[in-house]
Amino acid sequence: MYENLVRHTPKINQQLARYGVKFGIYKDNVFSERLFPFDAVPRIISAEAWDVLERGLIQRVDALNAYLRDLYGDKQIIADGVVPQDFAFASSGYLPQCEGIVPPKGIYSHISGIDLVEGDDGEWYVLEDNLRIPSGASYPLVARNLCRRCDAETFRGSAIRDNRDYGERLRAVMDNVNCGGINVVLTPGRFNAAYFEHSYLAEHAGAVLAEPSELFVDNETLYFRDATANRKVGAVYRRLSDEYLDPLCFLPESLIGVPNIMSAYRAGNVAIVNAPGNGAADDKGIYYFVPKMVEYYLGEKPLLKNASTYLPFYDDDMAYVMDNADTLVIKDVAEAGGYGVVFGSTLAPEKLEELKALIRREPRRFIAQEVIDFLCLPTYIGGEMVPRKADLRAFVLSGEKTSVWPSGLTRYSREEGSSVVNSSQGGGFKDTWVLCR
Amino acid sequence: MGSLSIEKVEHLLWLGRYVERSYTTLRFILSTYDAALDSLEGNWKGQLEELGFDASNDDPLSFFNNCLFDLSNASSLKYSMNAAYDNAVLLRDVIGTESIAYVQMAADAVDAAEVSDAPLLDLQLVLDYIMAFKGCVDDYIADDSARNIIKSGISVERLDLYTRLSFRLDRLPKETHRLAGRIDRIGIPYNKDAFKRVIACVFDQGFPENMTYERLGDLLADIAGIF
Fold this sequence. Notes:
The complex is a heterodimer of chains A (437) and B (227). With 437 residues, chain A is of the alpha+beta class.
């Protein structure tokens, strides 16, 4: 079906290089840019499977947004004992500075990146929710254009849903909460790992790409320093972490923040996309409670499954983890990007005992999950087709209504048998074809 | 004019300057190299020294290699092309991915030529991509101000290089005329007095025959002072 795409994979990768499709990486304190390897063999999702995924993702993100409104508002879910206080407020992503702030239209997570895997059993499992600054939508956008040029016949006959409207969708999300003024994509700068994406999305959403020094706050209003006249900013899609966002509110040593941006946000004069404080809901420890949130806030059964997860915080779960650590995957809730993930089966006995002792000392810091035997996708590497583990980051956009971008970032491991798909650790990416019939 | 910060204006201006510096430097080196094939003595060394190269190296191949690819030399082709890329990559929302792609390809072509066994032949691609970028500036960049700033950068760099090298001085009036047609459309302040002095100098009846070394120095200072 996609022989042409496979045959021309090197050419497509050359074109991706032409368009500067890169990510930055620091190694030994030296910054360099790397091309993100693209495999032209796509992940294909049938219309029926997508229908379930789409409904499940919308449901999940709606529940997460409701949780954030509640957490920084009435805290009813905690009063009702559904999410323990120890987890809600001990999360490193919970920001007391955001207490009582209601973002424009009550939306906290405007762009959510939900990481899923398809199990060998054909079920989709959510591995992680990313509600802060999920990356990765730009890469398949560029790749799709090139693949369509490469193999017109395949695209003409396959009823593949077009995914190239992401920029317009992003713009609509920003316009929906815009408080009057221009839309800005705020980037920490050229040496950020995802700088390509920041600049590409700004271009395609028709927003101004700004570095922190190009923004300032006056009288609780955020402005862009234009060469001719300052312009009011109505919505800012910030691509830097909460703790660096405002040195007067969070980390005082931050040199990449915008002083007083939080006061403009608190006054309702600018929308921050995604809202500060969202880390309280995408913490690996909070993940365990998301299906319960769906039932609590929406009164519905969750359509998407979590991987079976154990919280050593609970005595029963601690006992299970101690007995089965050699078969589980242990995750440090404070880490991200594939770091802090340990497969018990790969540890020597003494290392496993050390890890178990650490879990006993700091039970809130870890979660443990059953290893999902997730599906391998055919991948063209080194001139042959080989199976490789792959995940899917689906992008859910919350604007006037919640919708799912009919595509996503499929990341695959380049090493046989490995489940680590992160670009920073050598992974590549594929296009994701969602069929419309 | 769209939303352009002072930083973006600077990047646009320097993008134009570095692209033109790469283009003119490469063309100059190619023509000089050709002359040097027959006789390695002559004015070419002096002219390249004006560009900042150390011409004391007696090995011509090594010398030209440094002019082209020595990243530690701010006058080399590679340095200029990398600097053009460093400015372009910060302007994606203003000039667009299609335009940046030509700068990216020109920079990649310099890298490829460096490891080629026929670098001067392969460097033709760099000229081609730069020309394509210049076409892109006209066709793809919708913001008039951004387009005019890049073109003003190109003009200022030409004026600077031609003056510095005493090369094609007869073209300075035409380039100054072009700049005059754009400079009031870029929407940002510039040094009008300096530009007036440049105009007075290059449109003087005796130009360029009456130019002394000292007057060229004054002209160069005025060109540098426009922005």
